[in-house]
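chain below, 66 aa
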Amino acid sequence: MDDFDQILESGIVFKGAPKGGPKDDGKVKTKAKKKKYITGAHGSGSARQKAKYREQRANRRSQHKG
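prediction:
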């Protein structure tokens, strides 16, 4: 009961998040961003097909500057 009385008298204090925040160490965290996955070099048929579509999209005239 002592904790309950203390809460009634002073209320509950919610503290913010620590100031440090998440550290970004430059590592690739998802397979989709890894070089071999993007180029389809690791042997997966799905990855090769997606790589083919990415290459086709990159070669479109609408994707070129100027």
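The chain has a mean pLDDT of 78. Residues 4 and 10 are 10 Å apart (CA to CA).
thats it, cya
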